[in-house]
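User: Quick one: structure for sequence A, then sequence B.

Assistant: Sequence A:
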Amino acid sequence: MSPRPKVTPLGDDVYEIDTRMAGHTGITAGYLILGDRPCLVEPGTAGSAPVVREALTSLGVGPSDLSTVVVTHIHLDHAGGVGDMAEAYPAAEIVVHEKGARHLAAPERLMRSARMVYGDLLDELFGELKPTDAARIRAVEDTGVIDLGGGRRLESHYSPGHAKHHVGLLDSLTGDLYVGDAAGIYIPETADVRPATPPPDFDMDTALASLEKFKALGPKRLLFAHYGPVAAVTETLDRSAEELRLWVETVRKAHDESLDIDHAVAMVRDRTDGRYKAYGPDADPALTEKYELLNSTAGNVAGIMHSFGKLA
């Protein structure tokens, strides 16, 4: 028997749902905003869909009740379950940035690319993204509005750098900002912030501009998909920018010296040794393994290296 889903109330009808990606706890969060028009932010992977459905049921949201499913971007740890959720909640509108909309309607190309990267591990980590009827998908551009009912809304703000189809989402009532991966990975056990710079879309200057946009929005709290709420808004966004610059500077040095990716990974590990409590000789090995699965050093370095090629 699978464990009951972990649902954490965050106030003002916001609930954090542990989507249990690949069976891990505390690695990927979805968020339900209850009210007149219930909205699910970040459904997680296809493999997480049963967990998320059970969580919604426990919160009184039935198949005809969910109004909206919105994703910050279409990477499979965030949006892999969209097709399953659309099928289970036939009244829900699916909201995504315009650059990602076609991949939710016809995910074959996205799935082929993901399988090239992950191989057989794809099924264990993410499962299969099912297509969603294009008529149910609403594409937003630089900004957009999701009606939550009662005058409350989610405002989407285009925030590329991590991915070209990324948006942040600001709750008009609470000031919560759903940051997706644009501010990196937050590790709640240790309060570490690590970059998220996978290929093929990562671009440092664009990512830094998105962080500045987030600061200018004046959010009261950051809600990370990985993982959870953070009240220290300015400090966390500043730390995210600092870590990005450090990683890119280190990988650029390896690139300029014509070193291969293995050397670049080693240089990053040497340079960041001691910066993250979740890593290093004194860290909990299980915690390190969990976050390497989600946000591997090699994957981040590959994304940074790829960004240099785009600039050439």
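Sequence B:
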Amino acid sequence: MRPRLALIEDDLDFALMCRSYLERQGFIVTWVMDARAGRSVLRDGAVDLAVLDLGLPDGSGLELLRALRSASRLPVIVVSGRGEEADRVAGLEIGADDYLVKPFSQRELVARIRAVLRRSQPPDEPEVLLVGVLRVDMGARQASAAGVLLTLRPKEYALLETLARSPGRVLSAELLLHQVWGASWRQPATVTEHVYRLRGKLARLPSPAPRITTVRGYGYRLDP
């Protein structure tokens, strides 16, 4: 799975440059331009790291970081034009994992992101996800239940794995589209179609099999 980043940055030119470079380096990037949208993206979850500017039009990035740290250990790299020692210390003390002062090279940003992700990754991430009787083998890219193997197309498997990583949690269709198909794919009906196919295959598994629940107006979740 490609690392998923939230880029919270209001400088249009800088953000477009960052997003383009990060996506070329293999990251999935969700870009928002203010603190309110940033809270929404971080609350929805399913991101591996946030790149957070301090100077946002509707509030301080430090306040957003403080609110995030009260509930989450999501890795955060602060990017800012504020290079004074007091600003750097404040960001790090509130809970930033790293602090980059603008201007900086895109190569350095990628190197910092990868270093923070390495530090934050659990040492023994499980190769197998278990959701009720469903077994998702990420190494083999296969799913089964009670010894019955699911025959899945690559995108169906990727969709199931994404849902199985957050069982019981609602993931929006937009988020699933972004994570499974990538930033350039803009057809939300694709998610609906693949969910429909995946439901049919899960329904043929021995009972009780997990099911994909539609939460109207929000998205989908995998229930054991």
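The chain has two domains: 4-120, 128-223. The radius of gyration is 19 Å.

User: Thanks, that's what I needed.
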